[in-house]
Amino acid sequence: MDLILASNNKDKLKEVKRILSPYGFNVKSQSEAGIHLEAEETGTTFAENSAIKAKALYDIIHKPVIADDSGLEVDALGKEPGVYSARYGGEGVDDIGRCYLVLNKLEGVPDSKRTARFVCVITYIDENGEMTQFDGKIEGRIGYERIGDNGFGYDPIFVVGDRTLAQYSEDEKNAVSHRGEALRKLEEYLKTKIR
Ligand code: IMP
Fold it and tell me: Residues in the active site (predicted)?
């Protein structure tokens, strides 16, 4: 089954493809499908923004689509950066800068208060326009420096067990991640629907 991902984020696309392809899904990005779209994320929750992105693409293509809205919630920062994870710190700040922003804000915060989680909401819209959502999360804590070269975004400062997610291999991360959990729920759902 073909699924088109409503995202321009190459790292997300890579993970989504790797998680879903063993189940027989052929995931294409919207640009691979010839569509150039940047839906404005005006929602205040991951679920709202995920739905906005999926709908915007479905309204153009009228084929099965998925969208991923995800982010980091840091408890000591009142769950920031949350839905603003991709835009934290404003224009001109990159993934590395955003990691340092979080690290700097947590200066002096002890280990026990550095709890955080990644959250993901996957929206699926079928060929008839029916929408279903699936969520996933992974609990961890914010480290004290950037460590590791794998993954993307906040992975180098997000510690699970004794390593950052950027020290996990792709498959190790996908087996425990927020995105992996949500996409496996989608797969379970689609199994009952289409096979
Ligand atoms: P979105 O495109 O609005 O969903 O932005 C998600 C943002 O959250 C990304 O740009 C990253 O900064 C962060 N994020 C989401 N998932 C992950 C992950 O698996 N690892 C690291 N950062 C992530």
Answer: 69
Q: Which residues line ligand 1 (CB under 6 A)?
A: 9, 41, 69-72, 85-86, 118, 151-155, 177, 179
CB atoms closer than 10 angstroms to residue 45: 13
Q: Is 69 noted as a catalytic residue in this protein?
A: yes
**Closest residue (by CA) to atom 13 of ligand 1?**
71
Q: Which amino acid is at 12?
A: K
Supply the pLDDT for residue 193: 85
What does the mean pLDDT of the chain come to? 96
Pairwise CA distance, residues 140 & 166, whole Å: 13
Q: Which of 69, 75, 94, 149 is catalytic?
A: 69
Instruction: Please tell me whether residue 41 adopts helix, strand or coil conformation.
Output: coil
Query: Which CATH code for domain 2-194?
Result: 3.90.950.10
Q: Is 192 left (phi over 0), alpha (psi -120 to 50) or beta?
A: alpha
What are the sequence ranges of the domains in the chain? 2-194
Q: In 37-177, which residue ranges form alpha helices assigned H by DSSP?
A: 46-61, 95-105, 170-176
The rounded Å distance from CA 19 to ligand 1 centre is: 16
pTM for the predicted model, two decimal places = 0.97
